[in-house]
Amino acid sequence: MSATAAIDVAGGLRAAPPVVETVGVSKRFGANQALKEVSISIPAGESRALVGRNGAGKSTLVAAITGLIVPDAGTIRLAGAPAPAYTDRAAWRARVACVYQRSTMIPTLTVAENLFLNDQPIRGGRIDWPALQRQAERALADWGLNVDVTLDAAELGVEQRQIVEIARALLKGTRFIILDEPTAQLEGREVARLFERIRRLQESGVTFLYISHHLEEIYEVCRSVTVMRDGRIVAEAPLSEMPKDRLVAAMVGDHAQDLSRRRVRANVTRKDVAPCLDVRNLKVGEIVRDVSFSVAPGECIGIAGLVGSGKEDIADAIAGLIKPEGGTVTVGGEPLPGGRVAETRERGVGYVPRDRHRLGLIPQLGVGENLTMTIVDRFGSAGFISPAARSRTAERLIKSLEVVVSSQDQPIGELSGGNQQKAIMGRALASDPKLLVLVHPTQGVDIASKESLFAIVEKSRGEGTAVLIVSDDLDELVACDRVLVVFKGEIVQSFGSDWGEKEVVAAIEGVGNRE
Fold first, then answer.
1. CA 441, CA 351: separation in Å to the nearest integer?
2. At CA 406, angle to CA 404 and CA 412, rounded to 5?
């Protein structure tokens, strides 16, 4: 009997219940309505793709159906039964498992120990280590998975880790596995092997929910697709009935028209002006290969791509956070040192990191100190700082940036996210840079703060500062004259001042990109 059939009380065949079914599930985090009456049903044996732009609600939905968050409204059923109590983690793991991009294994334990954690074979009151190894080898072999069970988890590659995490989920009894961006860190041959394993497991009755930004992949490995946008499900269909252009249109929706109305093209690249930033044949690690582009004074260029595409590595290399393996980066005709942040800043590069809490600010220090910490050498000499000079500069920056603060001594950690981001932008501008490198510059701020930040960018451009915005958020890319799309470490498409949202999204997601 197939995995998708069951016997009813009359002895006939009936369809098995869905492996997961949600009805009207909603979830709010503060002012953000992350899920809005989401209803989804995934049949047993299905391979369903879940797609949507960043912030569409995919991660929140996964957290709900794996029991990590409690919905504000709606119901969840797993294999036809009500969801377990949220305190019963074992019951959840027996019904649904998620293999995340980041490993959930304990790195200092072996593969065998991770597979049978808290369920090891016992003999004479002690763990039977030979039996544990045999059981682990047998479990992996049963599913056609080949990994040395005596290796520490820390020694595993990404592909091997995924194999072990899938096997661990199957051993817990679940036949419903969620794969969250499973190919983000895999090479081509590893991707092909993963797909083959998914097909083989599906034939044995395992159901998959496959989350990916690589739209080309879902057509290869999935049968159907659910599209989310703004916390809602906006489309659901067999992939045979959902061509790529329709899928991208569903992901973008009317948002594209809204962005077009808001877009301002304040600058057109001048061919007769020497570039402010010139990147030639840049190579960073094993990700970024032979990347070349330039940015003119006053021009705003977008670098767009998926997580793991290499876009942020390009930004970090330009800002001096990492040293490139090859190529050159010049600003104002002067080569940058590579891997040296202070010297890179001195040569004219201002930088706003994506994670303002980890890299952007010191929360216990005052706003004034955070704003001016990169230019303290201007306030004195021989290691002495003039508090009055520093205070005057801080007040000028606070006023010009319209940072809402009680005093410049107020700890920056007490400010709202928008005001913190303005301060970080101000610190990047304090050194009068020739080039601003902004990585997701408006992430996590409200609409009013976004408009203020973009106004700061436009003012800087008007004064001749070149701007590089690194993001895959269309709301941030609207400020750009050109958008370069990075896919698997290479610039695969370049869009001019008339770039269209749907075309850019398709390129970011890997639809139709050159190989």
1. 10
2. 70
- The neighbour count for residue 193, using CB atoms within 10 Å, is 15
Strands 32-42 and 20-29: antiparallel
In order, the DSSP letters of 353-421 are: -S-IIIII--TTSBHHHHHHGGGGGGG-STT---HHHHHHHHHHHHHHHT---S-TTSBGGGS-HHHHH
304: CB partners within 8 A, 6+ apart? 311, 471, 472, 477, 483, 484, 485, 486, 504, 507, 508
Q: Which tokens go with 382?
A: 């021989």
At 51, give phi and psi (nearest 5°). -130, 160
pLDDT for 123: 87
What region does 48 belong to: left with phi over 0, alpha with psi -120 to 50, or beta?
beta
Q: What is the mean pLDDT of each run of 10 residues along the chain (515 residues)?
A: 43 71 93 91 93 84 94 95 91 88 85 87 88 89 80 85 84 87 73 84 90 83 92 94 87 58 46 84 90 93 88 92 92 90 90 75 81 78 77 85 82 80 82 90 69 83 92 82 91 85 83 57
Return all residues near 244 (Cβ < 8 A) that are at least 6 apart: 215, 219, 506, 511, 512
The pLDDT value given to residue 272: 64
Query: Which two tokens mark 404?
Result: 């809402």
pTM over 0.70: no
Cα 208 to Cα 30: distance, rounded to the nearest angstrom:
31
53 Cβ contact list (under 8 Å, min separation 6): 229, 251, 252, 474, 505
Question: Which of 229, 221, 225, 259 has its CA nearest to residue 244?
Answer: 225
Phi first, then psi: give them for residue 322, nearest 5 degrees: -135, 155
Look at residues 205, 195, 241 and name the one whose alpha carbon lies nearest to residue 46: 205
Beta bridge partners of 6: 14
Side by side, the strands of the sheet bearing 32-42 are 32-42, 20-29, 73-78, 81-82
